[in-house]
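Dear colleagues,

As part of the handover before I leave the project, I'm documenting each prediction I ran so the next person doesn't have to rerun anything. This entry is a single chain, and its sequence is reproduced below.
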Amino acid sequence: MNKRPLGRTGLMVSEVSFGTWAIGGSWGQTDEAESLRALDKAMDEGVNFFDTADVYGDGRSERLLARATKGKEDRIHIATKFCRQGDIFDPQTYSEQRVRQWCEDSLKRLERDTIDLYQIHCAPFEILKQGAVFEVLDKLQQEGKIRAYGVSVETVEEGLFCLEQSGVQALQIIFNIFRQKPIAELLPKAGERGTGLLVRLPLASGLLTGKFTAQSTFEAEDHRNFNRDGAAFNVGETFAGLPFDKGVELALQLGWIAEGRGNMTRAALRWLLDFKEITCVIPGFKNVRQVEDNLGVLQANPFSAEEHERLRKFYEEQVHDHIRGAY
């Protein structure tokens, strides 16, 4: 497992790490025993970093991580997030009292003394620009409650703003073959600043696995059902903001990327890891098989300059105009 620096934190994290939204909930039914087996498999294969949030299954994924990493706290690093338990548009949600309480609650569920990376969970840009929340995080960092902090953002503009905040050590961004906007400005600026970049939704909610058809359906409690048009939160968090049928159609045109790389899943992850500014990809999982499949990227061949150019043109000419939501 290759490791890359997480910003200026001093931590080296596995370039393939994992997000735990799926095992927490909102991705259909989950099996707790299988989730724990999958976490163990990931760690056995060298994964040393997991991303979670307090709202994933109302704390369920944090509790699962506590069980899975018991006794390994010094070598398995965890990032979690806050603010979406409250009204994200209310400045009081980001008050010291609220943030401190959410931090303490996450520490209890994680059964840890310190959170390695504490992230603002997709707050509105207006809140970020007010700046007060960064002062709260500075205080928690000084107290040792958190080792470092970062921001999970929805747009390139928000990301560029956060890069200007001296205490921000990492950004979490939506970035994949269908969402290439960060390449032009955000990636190089993050590289210059030495800021870590965590890539969420690297497979566009599964579209880039190539396994869906226009007839594919999802369970009622799966966000790919209830948020496919942005009814619950930013539509960009589901299928990269693409209408599902269009996403399936576009994915069918990408079958060629799997050649020499095993399958589309591994190819899509490999494309992301070709960018030196990326700290890690954090695909989701619900079982051991998915963990193994995602880790197969470690044997996948990088993309050539010509292939990167082909995918750039594909995005600009066929994908970009169909993306909905803040970007």
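The CA atoms of residues 170 and 243 lie 30 Å apart. Residues 96-110 form the longest helix (15 residues).

All the best with the project,
I.
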